[in-house]
Specification:
The protein is built from 15 helices and 8 strands. It is α/β, with parallel strands linked by helices and 280 residues long. The structure holds NADPH dihydro-nicotinamide-adenine-dinucleotide phosphate and the ligand O=CC(=O)O. Belongs to the HIBADH-related family. NP60 subfamily.
């Protein structure tokens, strides 16, 4: 996600400084005109606003507060925007560390996958320092088609977890429907066509369905990240005393898919876990 987002900033004329743990992934950005920094702190020192797109809560903490991390390069007048999907407690911990330097913090997880990232059509779910939201309006507008400012730190993370919990359950139900159709002797493509015309039509089913019917799962949103989001949503639901029976059942399917080795495939590969449950 980070590469297409940064490429759009470069194309829009922003001076962009990048860092990634595996340095080779910076190559396309360097070729497009970005400066490659030696560490996250080095990015922060050279930038007014630093964006981070990282896999999960441990990565967000490591890059922000670990040795050579963002916090070492932050100071008053700068801002840190974390667009990773993480939990509200991690966002609050990173916000406290960043704000301790005098800098501003905005969480801004995104809804939308690889295609929207390439097209500059992401949806930002932001919360934290409104002054940084205002200052980052230009870059957010380049990378996204909409931005929501939702209030205090944690609200953006919570919104993202709600949306992705629903998405994971929808994809799980779709995978079960395709498998059921197959067992009944129906064509999966016919199911996809029927669904597309009715009240449960979804861009996600239309986009992923034809490949799923062929057993193909080219990675846009890695299954391991969808399962991470379900796991984080279930933990928040537990803390809020909100039972999530359907979403918890969907999480079990994604856990099984990861155990079967599909973690790096697209999350639509949850279909393989459903197939694996079929009785002979
Ligand atoms: N893909 C998608 O469709 C979407 C993803 N998201 C969310 O965005 C985030 C990124 O997703 P995506 O780009 O697909 O994920 P990837 O797995 O492709 O990228 C994860 C990034 O995190 C880095 N990273 C992981 N652990 C560490 C660490 N300990 N220290 C430093 N860097 C680390 C990786 O570095 P390295 O290259 O060295 O491994 C890599 O740059 C996730 O939170 C995901 O849930 C949100 C919306 C859509
Ligand atoms: O988090 C994934 C997405 O597609 O949004």
């Amino acid at each position: 996600m980070g590469v297409p987002m940064a490429l759009n900033l470069i194309k829009a004329g922003y001076k962009v400084v990048v860092w990634n743990r595996s340095a080779d992934k910076c190559e396309p950005l360097k070729a497009a005109g970005a400066t490659v920094a030696a560490s996250p702190a080095d990015v922060a020192r050279q930038s007014d606003i630093t964006f981070a797109m990282l896999s999960d809560p441990p990565a967000a903490v490591q890059v922000a507060t670990g040795p050579g991390g963002i916090v070492e390069g932050m100071s008053a007048g700068k801002g840190y925007v974390d667009v990773s999907t993480i939990d509200p407690a991690t966002a609050a911990a990173v916000a406290a560390a960043v704000r301790g330097t005098g800098a501003l913090y905005l969480e801004a997880p995104v809804s939308g996958s690889k295609g929207p990232a390439e097209q500059g059509a992401l949806i930002f779910l932001t919360a934290g320092d409104q002054a940084l939201y205002d200052a980052a309006a230009g870059p957010l507008d380049v990378m996204g088609k909409a931005s929501f400012f939702l209030g205090e730190v944690g609200a953006g993370a919570n919104m993202k977890l709600v949306v992705n919990a629903v998405m994971g359950a929808m994809m799980g139900a779709f995978a079960e429907g395709l498998s059921l159709a197959d067992r009944m002797g129906l064509q999966q493509q016919d199911v996809i066509d029927v669904v597309a015309l009715g009240a449960i039509a979804s861009p996600m089913f239309a986009l992923k369905g034809p490949a799923m019917a062929k057993g193909n799962y080219p990675t846009a949103f890695p299954l391991k990240h969808q399962q991470k989001d379900l796991r984080l949503a279930l933990a928040e639901a537990d803390a809020a005393a909100q039972p999530l029976a359907v979403i918890a059942a969907a999480n079990d399917l994604y856990v099984r898919a990861r155990q079967q080795g599909h973690g790096d495939a697209d999350f639509s590969a949850v279909l393989e876990a459903v197939k694996g449950q079929q009785q002979q």
